[in-house]
Structure to design on (66 residues):
């Protein structure tokens, strides 16, 4: 009966939601291994997505359209 609390969305792994117009799908992208950008690709056509992570002057938006 050792139930561990599940992490909430606010404390889980960071991600961005991206609408990919190329194939009209939504995808989550996560920080890369270096931690300097959110990176991913379209699962249908393999179009690459990269959103740099900046210390200041960035956006508080978590949803983007490409």
């Amino acid at each position: 009966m050792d139930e561990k609390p599940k992490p909430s969305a606010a404390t889980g792994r960071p991600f961005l939601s991206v609408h990919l117009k190329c194939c009209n799908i939504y995808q989550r992208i996560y920080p890369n291994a270096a931690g300097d950008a959110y990176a991913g690709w379209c699962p249908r056509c393999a179009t690459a997505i990269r959103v740099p992570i900046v210390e200041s002057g960035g956006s508080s938006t978590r949803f983007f359209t490409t």
Notes: The radius of gyration is 14 Å. The CA atoms of residues 38 and 63 lie 12 Å apart.
